[in-house]
Amino acid sequence: MKVFIAGGRGRVGSPLADTLEAKGIEVVSGGLEDGIDVISGKGLAEALAGVDTIVNVLNTPRFDAEGAISFFEGSINNLTAEGERAGVRHHIVLSIVGVGEGDASEIGYYLGKVAQEKAVRSASIPATIIRATQFQSYIPALIDQHTVDGKVLAPRTFIQPVELAEVIDLLAEAVTTPKPGSEVEIAGPDRFYHDDLFRATLAHRGDHRDVVTVDGNELLEAMIPRGAYRRGTVRYPIPGIPIA
Ligand SMILES: NC(=O)c1ccc[n+]([C@@H]2O[C@H](COP(=O)([O-])OP(=O)(O)OC[C@H]3O[C@@H](n4cnc5c(N)ncnc54)[C@H](OP(=O)(O)O)[C@@H]3O)[C@@H](O)[C@H]2O)c1
């Protein structure tokens, strides 16, 4: 089996490539560093020759709706067009739990992920969508995103971070046991409030930034699974945070 990982050298793509290779699967890494551009199409046709499955773990620094939608939708369209020519049979996409739900739908980056899901769902190559909550290792970056003028503005809303390795295992499973047409969610074992999680994480890191609890819109409970999901077993590495 030959797998093309779109974004194969990223935070998710790189350990996923190692995991698949350890299972004896041939991996082609498709990132800018590999000379492949999924937006312009450069190098894509050659890289997809003989590929059975695409795993799409691309990302963009564009957080505005226009930039994110154009990147995520455009990359699905290009991967589908070239993938179809190459005979690709399965396209697995990593998305985020809750995008498109409640107030989360107003966030530009999430609108890009919604457009990505919609595009792959209606594309000609059978697709699997895996939605993960925030990675545990991503929480410090998330705190930075919530920092305004040195203060961390944290809503009193739920967050249920998952260990990245458990997301990688689920992606690898989707490759080896394909169930095209399925949509699966994964979250960590414990649910916290953003402000509690941010305070404990900063204290643990010796970071003295103030965390200010801001009004959490009751509707913004979107970033946790609503229905059935795979519950990871790896606990957040800082003990003692109140479970919500
Ligand atoms: N962070 C979280 O907590 C979280 C939670 C759930 C889901 N996700 C999703 O996980 C996915 C992967 O995130 P990540 O953190 O692994 O991203 P990342 O580390 O930023 O990696 C993104 C990859 O995309 C590649 N890329 C960007 N533009 C490209 C282009 N035009 N052509 C080809 N490759 C391009 C990059 O290639 P180069 O390295 O060569 O530039 C890089 O390999 C994202 O879609 C994100 O929404 C993240």
From TrEMBL:
Residues 19-137 form the NAD(P)-binding domain. Signal peptide: none annotated. It comes from the Bacteria. InterPro entries: NAD(P)-bd_dom (IPR016040), NAD(P)-bd_dom_sf (IPR036291). This is NAD(P)H-binding protein. It comes from Streptomyces nigra.
